[in-house]
Amino acid sequence: MSITAPGEAKPGRPMPGNVWKCAVCGYLANGENPPVECPQCASTGREFIRVTDKKGLRYDGQPFDVLLINGSSHRANNTGYLADLAEDVLRENGVSYRRYNLSEFAINHCWCCYSMRDNACRYPCRDQLDDMPAFHEMVIASKAVIITSPINWNNMSARLKDFLDRLNCIQNLYLLKKPGLTEGKIVGIAVSGHEDGATKTAMDICLYFQQMGYILAPFGIAYRVHGAQFNTITDTEFLKTDPLVIMKVKGMANNVVVMMRLDNEGKLKGKLIPVCE
């Protein structure tokens, strides 16, 4: 296998054989199989994606119930496992859903148009140059959102922060005195990490959705950390063998489904007074 510098493989000029891209850092590798470990960021081979002529994300307009977001930079590590558990519950309950690992998509930083003038922040978002407009449509189309997040220095990942920041154009509809598109929807949150910061991370995420009129499902936050006394390399085995992880995450996902089926969105439509920043 040969390893290449980032950016050598370009659309329309493929390198010989398979080209693999690390979804975490963008490193490119050429060979029959991806590397066992990324030589640039140390992620496992599970993070590599075969490079294809992938088109930008588009929403097909088909209705579905739950948008499941893995907000980690690692699509196939601990936070991905939490998303797997939530996905199992949705599947077992016959709930239609769509799962996305944010590391596989292009999401630009928010342009902060609101800071120029209030009505400069609008929906549809001014930034139509990445995959976020499709996510905007799916947030509006779905009945509930489940977010799984790692703890990065007592907070969510930068990728997830960008995703949530970009929802501002939907939230700003209320401030522009326009009909809202998200009030009464349901949110559930699952957080995994090595040590401190789980509740802070979960509440930071929750605040975004509260400002959009979402309802946190009862017992709608699940989290589990391992501990600073352990090497991070042991976190995955801990999470996958700890029965509390399965109980908490699956319980949260079940509670989201129960709340969603009460049709709070329909019952509350037009009855709420937006109180948001």
TL;DR of this structure?
With 277 residues, this protein is an alpha/beta fold. Helices cover 30% and strands 18% of the residues. It folds into two domains: 1-54, Single Sheet (Rubrerythrin, domain 2), CATH 2.20.28.10; 66-268, Rossmann fold, CATH 3.40.50.
Mind explaining what this structure looks like?
By secondary structure, this protein is an alpha/beta fold. It is 30% helix and 18% strand. Strands 6-5-7-8-9 form a five-stranded parallel sheet, sandwiched between helices. Strands 1-3-2-4 form a four-stranded antiparallel sheet, with no helix packed on it. The protein starts with a strand and ends in a 9-residue tail after the last helix. Mean pLDDT is 91; it is low at 1-14.
CATH architect. name of the largest domain: 3-Layer(aba) Sandwich
The main pleated sheet reads as:
5 strands, parallel
Helical coverage, percent range: 25-40%
Top-tier CATH class of the largest domain: Alpha Beta
Comma- or semicolon-separated keywords:
single chain; 277 residues; alpha/beta; Rubrerythrin, domain 2; Rossmann fold; five-stranded parallel β-sheet; four-stranded antiparallel β-sheet; globular; disordered N terminus
